[in-house]
Write a structure and sequence with these properties.
Blueprint lengths: L1 E4 L4 E5 L7 E3 L8 E5 L4 E5 L5 E6 L6 E2 L5 E6 L2 E6 L5 E3 L5 E8 L5 E7 L7 E7 L5 E5 L4 E5 L2 E8 L4 E8 L5 E4 L1 H8 L3
Antiparallel strand pairs: 1-2, 3-4, 4-5, 5-6, 7-8, 8-9, 9-10, 11-12, 12-13, 13-14, 15-16, 16-17, 17-18
């Protein structure tokens, strides 16, 4: 594993491991990075110099860490779980949804974006934004394709079947109105009409 400064075009740190590893999420505020080792089912926390600071196992490696790495969120058998990293104990996040997968997490809060099943049977799915600590459903829609989080707001795109393009949606995460900007308005404002 190498950390490369692309501006200086030089290797800043390196670490040799016997198994392949994958970078998880992003760099954290303290400069640490987390890498997954699929062969062993473990996560490894590295400092800025790629020295292993800790390692631990998780039920699956497809989840997301809270911004402070105290919690790890994952989906197993359609249930969202929160694992306390210090103790390794997991508990279901009881919001009553049937989860397919997690697709993102707020960089500073335990707010997750997930694909969910809309019915017990069938392939219809929707997107939910869930507060992992309070277990509150902040947003639940069946028409959004890609959702991103910023501060206390969200942005998303959804297919507009009338003109076969994507519209942009945005709004407050909790209790706010969801607004839509049609693609033709986005295009017109970007070219100065």
């Amino acid at each position: 594993t190498l950390i490369i400064d692309i501006y200086k075009d030089e290797v800043v740190a390196k670490s040799v491991r016997a198994h392949s590893m994958e970078l998880v999420q992003r760099k954290f505020a303290d400069g640490a990075i987390v890498m997954a080792e699929p062969d062993s089912g473990k996560f490894f926390v590295f400092d800025r110099n790629l020295t292993v600071k800790s390692s631990f196992s998780a039920p699956n490696l497809d989840g997301y860490f809270a911004g402070d790495r105290s919690s790890y969120y994952y989906v197993q058998e359609a249930v969202l779980y929160r694992m306390d990293v210090a103790t390794g104990k997991s508990a279901a996040v009881g919001c009553g949804l049937r989860f397919r997968s997690l697709v993102g997490i707020h960089p500073e809060k335990d707010i997750l974006v997930a694909r969910i099943n809309l019915a017990e049977q069938g392939s219809d799915f929707g997107v939910a934004v869930v507060d992992g600590k309070t277990e509150e459903i902040l947003l639940l829609r069946d028409d959004l394709a890609h959702v991103w989080l910023m501060d206390d707001r969200f942005g998303a795109v959804a297919m507009n079947s009338k003109n076969l393009s994507y519209d942009v949606y945005y709004g407050a995460l909790a209790g706010g109105d969801v607004r839509r900007i049609p693609t033709d308005q986005l295009y017109a404002s970007s070219v100065g009409y």
